[in-house]
């Protein structure tokens, strides 16, 4: 089953995202804090991470930067889901290496399509890595 | 010209004097009188004030003609023409000291007398004109608003006007003949080098110019005065450079104004950036509850048909809470905006402070519920003073609300009112989650929330509003929070 990690500090929204993912038959895990979410990701290697940016302790940029340092996270899809909708923030997020940058509010289809895109990319990457080996 | 010239004859031989008088009058001159001694000549000259005194050098009595002329010239401006039979060198030397306009040797012809007088008058008029022109020039240089210093071709000072004296701190007589840049250096603010190269260039090229860079003049006292300068060569009628004139003015006021404008622009830029940031943050703060509302609505639409009632109700509550949160956020944003526009007015009116606090505590207690106890203690009250109830309400409601909100375990909240002779002090103490040290610096910043607030709802504007309200009141706010619990202290002046 595809595992999706959700890191979002606002509880009502985090609950909604987890429910949406659950209804779409994903195994969804949620964390309130950037740090605890990041540590879980490093230990459990999810398929896709959906991460907010503005969080109290470790923000989304730092979460992604830290995950990028680990080769085990190379094929994990990363989606920023954030209220920072200005162009500079979008550019910054993509330049850090996010696969997709979604802004709040969002429709379920947008999020599910973003996840699907990440999973397709993951398959391609995994195949490419196999050939390389 | 003859009719305008008045003459006093000083001659001790009456017949000679009379003869001279007749000759002069025939020539058209006005003879104002005849004096036969030095004393008589002095008295008469003072009385009639002639243009010319025809003075016999060899007068009888204590004073000869030369002594008499000296005396008359010391008293007022008059032209002396000596009439004398003597032409020896000593006499001439003595006579020279009185700066006579001419000598006529006796015996003389009338035409000779006439020519001498005419030449004397013309020469005197030319000298007078020149003197007046020099006086006018000196007056212009004195009154000119700029400092003016003139130098010769080697750079030694030849003239300095009063403004230059004032600016440099040097008197003209102290600096004449000295090198300007040695006595009162003018240097570049940036390189600290003097402007010798610039001066040399003007002298060599004979073209006026000014320095583009910022320069300062070092006055006698050592003070550095920012100046603007313009240096011109002095060129004679043969086209040769004979010196230069440096005009400069104190631009301290201008520099200060420039600095003030620069600072004001920086401040405005800061304020604009701050406003921009506030708008950005506000939009961000609205997006998350909107995402909650939209996602709950979409989930209800898509999956609601297979959910139990309680789950559906949960989502509806989520929508309601998010909407309420956004409404509170909007109210707070508008309030903060009001303070930034300066529209929050301070309007103190008579208020029973103790009753006000007690009523507030009752309201808050009702909202907080049984798990909390808000204890109000009053230490002397200023019941005859005036307070702004609206501002007080904003301050105390937000602080009490925070004390309750951030004490998830419940417990006692102490609310104290202390009245001194000059101020009213409110303290609100809780035993809640406290404020982490790393958050304390930004505590009053808009949208900043403590890193330990978790899921506790809040707009992040409550303390911003409290601080603004305290400032409008003219008061001060402080807090302490070490580990567990927080105490806020608000001190407000009495009105």
Summarize the structure.
The complex is a heterodimer of chains A (133) and B (495). With 133 residues, chain A is α/β, with parallel strands linked by helices.
What's the end-to-end separation of chain B, in Å?
87 Å
Output the radius of gyration of chain B. 48 Å
Low-confidence stretches of chain A: none
Task: Write out the strand line-up for the largest beta sheet of chain B, numbering strands in chain order.
Answer: 7-6-11-10-9-8
Strand-residue fraction of chain A?
Answer: 15-25%
What is the straight-line distance between the termini of chain A?
A: 25 Å
* Greatest interface (CB-CB under 8 A), with counts per chain: A-B, 24 and 29 residues
What structural class results from the helix and strand content of chain B?
alpha/beta
The major beta sheet of chain B can be summarized as: 6 strands, antiparallel
Cα radius of gyration of chain A in angstroms: 14 Å
Uncertain runs of chain B are none
Task: Choose one word for the global shape of chain A.
Answer: globular
Report on the structure:
The complex is a heterodimer of chains A (133) and B (495). Chain A contains 5 helices and 5 strands. Chain A has 133 residues and is of the alpha/beta class. In chain A, helix 4 links the parallel strand 4 and strand 5. In chain A, helix 2 runs parallel beside helix 3. Chain A is globular. The mean pLDDT of chain A is 92. Chain B is rod-shaped. In chain B, the strands form 4 sheets. In chain B, strands 7-6-11-10-9-8 form a 6-stranded antiparallel sheet. In chain B, strands 2-1-3-4-5 form a 5-stranded parallel sheet, sandwiched between helices. Chain B is α/β, with parallel strands linked by helices. Chain B starts with 5 loop residues before the first strand and ends with a strand. The model of chain B has no long low-confidence stretch (mean pLDDT 88). In chain B, a hairpin with a 4-residue loop joins strand 6 (147-152) and strand 7. Chain B has helices spanning 14-26, 38-48, 65-75, 89-96, 110-143, 162-168, 172-175, 180-183, 196-205, 252-303, 309-340, 353-368, 389-405, 437-440, 462-473, and strands at 6-10, 30-35, 52-56, 79-84, 102-105, 147-152, 157-160, 186-188, 215-218, 224-235, 241-250, 349-350, 372-379, 386-387, 411-419, 423-430, 476-480, 486-493. The A-B interface holds A 10-13, 15-17, 19-20, 23, 32, 54, 56-57, 83-86, 103-108 and B 280, 283-288, 290-296, 298-299, 302-303, 315, 318, 321-322, 449-455.
């Amino acid at each position: 089953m595809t595992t999706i990690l959700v890191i979002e500090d606002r509880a009502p929204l985090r609950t909604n995202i987890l429910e949406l993912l659950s209804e779409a038959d994903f195994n969804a895990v949620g964390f309130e804090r950037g740090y605890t979410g990041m540590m879980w990701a490093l230990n459990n290697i999810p398929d896709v991470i959906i991460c907010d940016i503005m969080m109290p302790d470790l923000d989304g940029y730092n979460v992604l930067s830290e995950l990028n340092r680990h080769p085990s996270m190379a094929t994990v899809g990363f989606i920023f889901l954030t209220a920072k909708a200005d162009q500079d923030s979008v550019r910054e997020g993509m330049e850090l290496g996010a696969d997709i940058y979604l802004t709040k509010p969002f429709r379920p289809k947008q999020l599910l399509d973003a996840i699907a895109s990440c999973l397709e990319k993951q398959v391609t990457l995994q195949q490419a890595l196999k050939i390389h080996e | 010209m003859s009719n305008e010239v008045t003459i006093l004859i000083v001659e001790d031989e009456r017949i000679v004097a009379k003869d001279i008088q007749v000759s002069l009058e025939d020539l058209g001159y006005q003879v104002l009188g005849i004096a036969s001694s030095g004393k008589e000549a002095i008295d008469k000259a003072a009385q009639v004030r002639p243009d010319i005194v025809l003075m016999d050098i060899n007068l009888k009595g204590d004073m000869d003609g030369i002594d008499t002329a000296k005396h008359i010239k010391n008293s007022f401006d008059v032209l002396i023409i000596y009439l004398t039979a003597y032409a020896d060198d000593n006499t001439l030397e003595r006579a020279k000291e009185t700066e006579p306009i001419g000598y006529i040797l006796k015996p003389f012809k009338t035409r000779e007398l006439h020519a001498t007088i005419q030449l004397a008058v013309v020469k005197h008029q030319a000298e007078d004109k020149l003197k007046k022109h020099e006086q006018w020039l000196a007056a212009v240089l004195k009154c000119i608003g700029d400092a003016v210093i003139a130098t010769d071709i080697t750079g030694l000072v030849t003239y300095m006007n009063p403004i230059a004296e004032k600016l440099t701190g040097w008197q003209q007589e102290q600096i004449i003949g000295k090198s300007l840049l040695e006595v009162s250096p003018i240097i570049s603010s940036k390189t600290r080098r003097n402007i010798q190269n610039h001066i040399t260039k003007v002298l060599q090229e004979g073209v006026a110019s000014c320095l583009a860079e910022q320069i300062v003049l070092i006055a006698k006292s050592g003070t550095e005065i920012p100046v603007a300068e313009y240096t011109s060569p002095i060129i004679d009628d043969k086209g040769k450079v004979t010196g230069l004139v440096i005009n400069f003015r104190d631009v301290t006021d201008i520099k200060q104004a420039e600095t003030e404008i620069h600072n004001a622009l920086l401040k405005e830029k800061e304020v604009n950036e701050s406003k921009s940031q506030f708008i950005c943050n506000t939009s961000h703060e609205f997006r998350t509850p909107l995402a909650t509302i939209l996602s709950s609505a979409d989930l209800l639409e898509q999956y609601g048909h297979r959910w139990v009632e309680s789950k559906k109700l949960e989502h509806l509550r989520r929508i309601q809470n998010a909407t309420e949160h956004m409404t509170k956020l909007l109210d707070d944003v508008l309030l903060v905006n009001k303070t930034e526009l300066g529209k929050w007015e301070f309007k103190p009116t008579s208020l029973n402070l103790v009753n006000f606090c007690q009523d507030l505590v009752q309201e808050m207690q009702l909202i907080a519920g049984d798990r909390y106890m808000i204890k109000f203690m009053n230490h002397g009250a200023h019941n005859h003073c005036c307070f702004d109830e609206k501002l007080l309400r904003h301050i105390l409601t937000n602080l009490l609300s925070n004390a309750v909100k951030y004490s998830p375990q419940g417990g006692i909240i102490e609310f104290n009112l202390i009245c001194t002779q000059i101020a009213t002090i409110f303290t609100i103490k809780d035993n809640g989650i406290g404020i982490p040290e790393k958050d304390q610096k930004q505590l009053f910043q808009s949208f900043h929330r403590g890193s330990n607030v978790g899921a506790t709802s809040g707009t992040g504007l409550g303390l911003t509003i409290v601080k603004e309200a305290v400032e409008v009141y003219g008061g001060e706010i402080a807090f302490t929070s070490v580990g567990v619990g927080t105490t806020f202290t608000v001190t407000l002046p009495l009105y």
